[in-house]
Backbone:
């Protein structure tokens, strides 16, 4: 707190000059008063500290008596006061002052000013305000004893965690070592299964896009056996694609055979039509002669029978041509159905693979939490994890009031300094996270 210099009035100064003994006595008393004020003043670093609710202040008021030339302390006001929840400070005679967001020197100046106006004093009294006790901090999360703790200057995150008993520990009798081993075994199995599912999903995506190669998923970039997984899925993709190609080629060959058959039938139909036309002309030319008795009727009957046979053969050829065309259409539909079935199968496999991936991720999260709990609560499990390069990781964040009533949360480290009223959140995570 900054103290304004206090000079004795002119009358007292002249009295001191006229009486050397009185001058020495009063000078000594003056020095004692200044020393008392200095002893009750906050350190320089604390002068810039902004007060807030729950801060406890030690207030002392001293008045210079001009007539008597002595100092008088105000015991009615002198004492300890706590800043209320609304940020106000209530003092006898000085009234209610707004303390939140202000420094101790500002409060001291306002107290002295209010008292001078209240009692109409010629000389303004001197008030000293120091912080007797800072408002507390709060520690929550994965610590042994969450709660409220007193604030001390130079308090850091690590010191606050120590005040709260350190990392949360388990009750005795629980077999966390066995739980850790079981959880880690299941976790490793699920990690391998997840990697296979990621490779399978990449293969299905390549098949849907008709890509020639499978793109390496970003989740498998740092996995040692990722390339082997991709190679295995590539072999499956090639085998499936080859089987599909053989089926489509067989249908194309069948369509080609039927098309050739249609071409051959059409040629036969042309020849049959020509022969039928010739016989029809011959039958027409001798039909009149038969009526006149110039040609025997057996010849006419033979020609008519031949024409009828030709028409029957033409009908057979047309029927066979239609059947071949139907087979071609059927082969085309089979090829389309085969492609549609493949797309539907890929979509179903993709959906099932994604569902399996989601389920695996949930199980991985569960076993990760189980391992974290075991690492936190069991020294034996922690020793096992240390051998495998695993250990629990403590993460910190601080919720601090900005002074405007708005609380802000930010991440912190072990050496981050705390401020009065801070809320420290402690979270323990697994090194696998």
Residues:
């Amino acid at each position: 707190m900054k103290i304004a210099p206090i000079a004795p009035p002119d009358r007292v100064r002249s009295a001191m000059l006229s009486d050397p003994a009185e001058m020495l006595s009063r000078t000594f008393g003056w020095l004692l008063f200044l020393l008392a004020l200095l002893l009750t003043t906050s350190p320089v670093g604390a002068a810039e500290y902004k007060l807030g609710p729950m801060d406890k202040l030690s207030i002392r008021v001293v008045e210079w008596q001009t007539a008597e030339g002595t100092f008088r302390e105000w015991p009615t006001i002198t004492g300890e006061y706590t800043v209320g929840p609304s940020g106000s400070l209530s003092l006898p005679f000085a009234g209610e002052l707004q303390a939140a967001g202000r420094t101790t020197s500002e409060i001291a100046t306002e107290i002295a000013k209010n008292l001078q106006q209240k009692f109409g004093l010629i000389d303004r009294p001197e008030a000293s305000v120091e912080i007797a006790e800072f408002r507390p901090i709060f520690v929550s999360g994965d610590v042994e004893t969450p709660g409220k703790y007193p604030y001390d200057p130079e308090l850091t995150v690590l010191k606050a965690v120590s005040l709260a008993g350190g990392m949360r520990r388990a009750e005795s009798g629980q077999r966390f070592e066995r739980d850790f081993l079981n959880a880690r075994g299941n976790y490793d199995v699920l990690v391998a299964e997840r990697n296979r599912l990621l490779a399978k999903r990449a293969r299905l995506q390549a098949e849907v896009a008709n890509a020639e190669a499978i793109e390496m998923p970003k989740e498998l970039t740092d996995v040692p056996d990722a390339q082997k997984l991709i190679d295995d899925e590539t072999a499956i993709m090639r085998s499936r694609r080859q089987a599909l190609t053989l089926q489509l080629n067989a249908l194309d060959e069948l369509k080609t055979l039927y098309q050739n058959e249609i071409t051959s039938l059409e040629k036969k139909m042309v020849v049959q039509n020509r022969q039928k036309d010739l016989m029809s002309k011959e039958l027409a030319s001798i039909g009149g002669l038969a009526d006149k008795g110039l040609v025997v009727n057996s010849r006419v009957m033979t020609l008519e029978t031949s024409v009828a046979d030709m028409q029957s053969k033409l009908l057979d050829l047309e029927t066979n041509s239609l059947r071949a065309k139907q087979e071609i259409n059927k082969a085309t539909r089979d090829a389309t159905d085969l492609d549609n079935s493949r797309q539907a199968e890929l979509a179903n496999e993709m959906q099932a693979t994604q569902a399996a991936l989601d389920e695996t991720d949930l199980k991985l999260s569960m076993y990760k939490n189980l391992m974290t709990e075991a690492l936190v609560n069991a020294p034996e499990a922690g020793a096992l994890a240390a051998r495998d390069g695993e250990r629990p990781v403590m993460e910190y964040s601080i919720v601090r009031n900005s002074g405007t009533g708005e609380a802000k949360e930010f991440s912190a480290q072990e050496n981050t300094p705390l401020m009065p009223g801070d809320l420290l959140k402690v979270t323990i995570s697994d090194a696998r996270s």
Q: What stands out?
A: The chain is about 55% helix and 15% strand. The longest strand covers residues 56-65. The mean pLDDT is 78.
